[in-house]
Design goal:
This protein is α+β, with helices and mostly antiparallel strands. The protein is built from 4 helices and 11 strands. The chain crosses the membrane at residues 123-144. Residues 1-93 are annotated as: Disordered.
Length: 309
């Protein structure tokens, strides 16, 4: 743009000089660029050796116009560069005139975070899958172990002491008293092939007209798989008052016959998979019997005389 102005200035002066002197060669002054150094600026401002002293107006005009243009460029350039570096907002400016900004570096790597999240999610899925499969496995084992119930068979009751007589209770009321001591034998079989069972019972009662006259308790024990065991339980009752229920009992010289009922419940528990999978069964047993004071033989229970519920 500056070169265009120089050409226009020179061409405007050229037509006025043909009458005074012959045509002279025209020269051009090249304006320095904005990125030129101060040394180049000073060298460009030196007068050309082709200037003629006979044309002072032409040389002075050209020098003045060029100097004014150069100084204007220097002022504007230096004003932008020098003034741009000092601002009221206290920002630092680089050599290219751009403000320098503080770059905030974020810590961490998003790829690593995504990988960590994916691993945690996969671990959670694996854990849930394991719990589900293990639960299904335990359910199948539990269902397969349900049919294996302990088999109970009541064999005999040996009575060692039996007495019926009249007397008074702890409060002094006159009534009939009954004493029974004996040993109950029964067989327990565990048909399970993969686990043992823990066997226990509720109180084993000999009942006369809904009154317990003798009581015993089976001690808890462990029975291995596919095994059979015969257990004995002591039942005893000492001078149990019968009150109104004893009015039907007749004591003779030959002895007395007393109808009783044996009632109890057998409980079995099998730990199939530790304490996580267990099987529990209950078997209520009821056996009627008659005790004759004149007989000392053990009372044997026939196979179908007892009920097992």
């Amino acid at each position: 743009m500056l070169s265009t102005k120089s050409e226009s200035d020179i061409t405007s002066l050229a037509p006025s000089s043909p009458s005074r002197s012959p045509k002279r060669p025209v020269y051009y002054v090249q304006s320095p660029s904005r990125d030129s150094h101060d040394g180049d600026k000073s060298s460009s401002m030196q007068p050309s050796p082709m200037e003629s002293p006979s044309h002072p107006s032409f040389g002075r005009h050209s020098r003045n116009s060029s100097a004014s243009r150069f100084s204007g460029i220097f002022r504007s350039s230096s004003g932008r560069k020098g003034g741009g570096r000092k601002r009221n907002d206290n920002k630092e400016w680089n050599d290219k005139g751009w403000p320098e900004c503080n770059v905030i570096m974020e810590e961490g790597n998003y790829d690593d975070e995504d990988k960590a999240f994916t691993r945690r999610f996969q671990a959670l899925i694996a854990l849930l899958s394991f719990v589900f499969l293990f639960s299904v496995f335990c359910l199948i084992i539990w269902g397969a172990s349900r049919p294996y119930k302990a088999e109970i068979i009541v064999k005999s009751l040996a009575v060692s002491n039996f007495y019926v007589g009249e007397g008074t209770d702890s409060s002094g009321v006159l009534t009939k008293l009954l004493t029974v001591n004996g040993s109950l034998r029964m067989s327990v079989y565990n048909p399970a092939t993969i686990f043992g069972i823990h066997v226990s019972s509720t109180p084993i009662n000999l009942v006369y007209s809904e009154i317990p006259v003798a009581t015993g308790q089976l001690k808890k024990y462990y029975q291995p798989r596919k095994s059979r065991r015969t257990v004995s339980v002591i039942v005893e009752g000492n001078k149990v008052p019968l009150y109104g229920a004893g009015s039907s009992l007749e004591v003779s010289q030959t002895g007395v016959v007393v109808p009783l009922k044996l009632k109890f419940e057998i409980k079995s528990r099998g730990n199939v998979v530790g304490k996580l999978v267990r099987t529990k069964h209950r078997r209520q047993i009821s056996c009627p019997l008659v005790i004759d004071s004149s007989s000392s033989k053990p009372i044997k229970f026939k196979k179908n005389i007892c009920t097992y519920n």
